[in-house]
Structures are given as C-alpha cells and as structure tokens.
C-alpha cells in the first residue's frame, strides 16, 4: 500500500497544470513541451501502446482488423472487458481484487435465461432481475470483506467456486433464448434517424461531429481555467496538437462505424452506447463525488483515511456492491450476444478485467488508476482478442500472450516507482 493519498485525476493532469512557484499575482506561465511529454510518459505511453498494438495486428491480419464490421465486433464481443474493467478498477484502487467475475456472469446469465424461458418472464423484467441478482452478490462479497474482515482474494475465490457451481446447476448444458428484443441489446444498432449520407450512417456522422466539437471546447476551457486560476497553462500549440489528434481519431472511428452494418442497419451499436454511458457516469463518480475521493483515499493510505473520518468499511462494501452491479450488466450483454446460457460462460473474464486495469496504469498496491487508462487497457485486451481470433490463433497462444502482457505492465509499474523513489 502506498504511503500517501493519490489524487484520482493525477494521471490525467498534465505537468503544465501545477501551480507556478513565485509571487502571487504574477502572470501564469506556459509549460514547455518537454515538461508536458516527460511529465506524462505513463499517461501518453498507454495511448501509444494501443496505437502500436492496432498497427501490429492490422499488419498481421492483412488489413482485416480495421474492417468496419470487425471494429463493431470488437466492441460487441469485448464489451464484458470494458464494463467489468470499470468495476475492477475501483476494486483495485481500494487495494482489493475480485476473482469471481466470470463465475458470477455465468450464474446471472443462467438465472436470467432460465427465467425468460421457463417462467415466461418479460425480457425487461429479466434485465431488472439480473441487475438485482448482481447487487445481491455484490452485497454478499462486500459483507464478508468489509464487515467480517475476510480478505477479498479469499472471499472472491470462494465466490468463484460457489457461483460456477450454481451456474452449472441452473444452466446445465445450455439454455437457448428466442427473445428478439433481448438479443438486440448486444447485436443491433441505434435507429438510423438521419438516413444514409453517401452510403454512411447519418446519425453516426452527427455524433462524431458533436464529439469533435466537445473535445475542442473542453480543451480550450481547460486551458482558460488554468490561466484564470493562476496555474501554469499548456501552450496553445500543444492544445491545438491534442485537438488535431483527437479530430483524426474521432473522425476515423466515425467513418468506421458509419460504414458498418448492411444496407438497412448499421452505425452505432447499442452496446457502444451502454459502454459510453457507463464510462461517463463512472468517470464522474471517481473524479467528482465524495465516494470516488474516498476510494482513492482508502487505497492511498487506509490508516490515514480512517483517521480523517472516512468509514472504510462502508467504502469497501460499496466497492463490491458496485462490482456486482457492473457484473450484472456484463452478464446481460454476454447473454444477449451468445443467445444462450451455459455453465462455461465467462471463463477468465476476471483475468481480462484485471489485466486491463494493470495495463491501463492501475497500481498493484492500490490508490492509483483512472477510467480512461482502464478503458485503453481494455481496448488493448480487446484488440489482442480480436486480432488473434481473426488470425485463427490457438487458445493456448492467446493465453500466453495475455499473460506476458500483464507481467510486463505490472513490472513497468514497479520499476517506475523504484526509479521515482
């Protein structure tokens, strides 16, 4: 455990946002490009790593990785990584771990499928029922960790065995689903309300343009706030460079999604909207709420957090309650995509989520990590899954590569800390 509390936005803030040393009232200065680059090696490095992985697999797959429909499949098939990585990040920041994610996904999916097929439950009620089960399981884990004091590793290891066994009892060999609306959650797209523009989905283009404008406005406002608050501001050239990179990235992604699907349906997949909403909500929770600050405080220094009046047991309980909710969402999307529940569903889901967090900059000792970093880490895991799948790689090779990536990410984190010390 680290010895001091780390600000949740530390990896996202540039070196140019630190307060200027000197007399109060003097004009704020601009940080140099060198300070911005070397002060944020970890933050920018993860994005460069994602780009490098994409380029490598684009070459190895003969250009097939970035086919529009393959990009959509990347998010549809790896939505579980992106969603569970959000909850796992909060667990890891709080100095815990959750090994039960895959088993819980299998159990919740089995119960939901059983309810829809054998009880005739409406798919909307089934979704609410599955979320409720996720919350109950999260409360179960949270109770043992927070109020009994059983280490999270042991608690969730037991949960992994318990819920995998229950999934086998509930789902048996397989429970197929026929509900078209439920299956649409993971397979369909947003309605094409603007029609097709030159063969491209109009709604996707509009959303892409709005995203570009929002990014540009947010960067400019960020710089103006730094100047007005007397902070060292980023050079305007640096801001323009970041906006230009964002425009290129968003524009390319918009083109890929707008040209996906078929002649009647395509554009933005529903599952991408769900992921986007979750990212926005949890970014706000971690960076703008008391609960989010408490998680970082507990992870940074649990004893100091207790002395400052934070109820660490309540924080731990909420962390696992939230993990249960997000696991329930992952179970819904996984069941929707597979259209059947089996006891084997969710194998190694927790490993992908943990790997995504560590790749994205979360510290092994807790107290450090960001939502953007975890999402980039999840995308790297998704590209690995998708790229190796397109190449037809053996499952053993996939696991080997994932393992090496995780070890490298954690080793980099530890080596960086030693150098700073």
Short structural summary:
The chain has 421 residues and is mostly helical. It is 70% helix and 2% strand. A two-stranded antiparallel ribbon has the order 1-4. The protein has a two-stranded antiparallel sheet with strand order 2-3.
Describe the structure.
The chain contains 17 helices and four strands. The protein is mostly helical and 421 residues long. It has a single domain, classed as ABC transporter involved in vitamin B12 uptake, BtuC (Orthogonal Bundle). A two-stranded antiparallel ribbon has the order 1-4. A two-stranded antiparallel sheet has the order 2-3. A hairpin with a 2-residue loop joins strand 2 and strand 3. The longest helix has 27 residues. The protein is globular and about 65 Å long. The N terminus is likely disordered.
Question: In terms of topology, how is this protein built?
Answer:
Elements: H1 33-38, H2 41-60, H3 68-77, H4 79-93, H5 101-118, H6 123-148, H7 152-171, E1 175-176, H8 180-187, E2 196-197, E3 200-201, H9 202-228, H10 236-258, H11 270-288, H12 290-300, H13 302-307, H14 312-338, E4 340-341, H15 349-359, H16 371-391, H17 395-420
Antiparallel strand pairs: 1-4, 2-3
Helix pairs in contact: 2-16, 3-10, 3-16, 4-11, 4-14, 4-15, 4-16, 5-6, 5-7, 5-14, 6-14, 8-14, 9-10, 11-12, 12-14, 15-16, 15-17
């Amino acid at each position: 455990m680290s010895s001091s509390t780390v600000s949740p936005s530390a990896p996202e803030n540039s070196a140019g946002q630190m307060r200027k040393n000197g007399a109060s009232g003097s004009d704020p200065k601009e940080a140099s490009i060198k300070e911005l680059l070397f002060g944020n090696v970890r933050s920018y490095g993860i994005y460069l790593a994602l780009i490098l992985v994409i380029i490598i697999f684009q070459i190895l797959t003969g250009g097939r990785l970035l086919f529009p429909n393959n990009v959509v499949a990347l998010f549809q098939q790896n939505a579980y990584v992106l969603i569970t990585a959000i909850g796992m990040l909060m667990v890891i920041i709080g100095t815990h771990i959750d090994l039960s994610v895959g088993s819980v996904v299998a159990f919740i999916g089995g119960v939901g499928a059983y309810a829809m097929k054998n009880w005739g439950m409406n798919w909307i009620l089934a979704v609410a029922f599955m979320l409720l089960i996720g919350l109950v399981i999260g409360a179960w884990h949270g109770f043992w960790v927070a109020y009994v004091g059983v280490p999270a590793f042991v608690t969730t290891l037991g949960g992994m065995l318990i819920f995998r066994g229950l999934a086998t009892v509930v789902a048996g060999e397989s429970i197929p689903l026929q509900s078209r609306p439920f299956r649409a959650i993971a397979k369909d797209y947003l309605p094409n309300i603007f029609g097709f523009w030159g063969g491209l989905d109009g709604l996707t283009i509009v959303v892409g343009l709005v995203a570009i404008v929002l990014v540009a406005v947010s960067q400019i406002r960020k710089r103006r706030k730094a100047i007005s608050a007397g902070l060292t501001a980023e050079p305007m050239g640096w801001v323009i460079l970041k906006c230009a990179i964002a425009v290129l990235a968003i524009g390319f992604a918009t083109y890929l999604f707008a040209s996906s699907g078929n002649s009647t349906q395509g554009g933005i997949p529903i599952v991408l909207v769900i992921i986007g909403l979750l990212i926005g909500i949890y970014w706000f929770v971690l960076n703008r709420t008391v609960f989010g600050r408490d998680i970082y405080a507990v992870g940074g220094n649990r004893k100091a957090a207790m002395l400052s009046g934070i109820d660490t047991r309540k924080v731990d309980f909420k962390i696992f309650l939230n993990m249960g909710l997000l696991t329930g969402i992952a179970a819904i999307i996984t069941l929707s995509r597979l259209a059947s529940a089996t006891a084997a569903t969710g194998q190694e889901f927790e490993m992908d989520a943990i790997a995504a967090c560590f790749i994205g900059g979360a510290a092994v000792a807790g107290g450090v990590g960001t939502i953007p970093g975890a999402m980039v880490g999840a995308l790297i895991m998704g590209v690995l899954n998708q790229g190796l799948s397109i190449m037809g790689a053996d499952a053993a090779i996939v696991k080997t590569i994932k393992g090496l990536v995780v070890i490298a990410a954690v080793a980099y984190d530890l080596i960086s800390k030693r150098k700073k010390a």
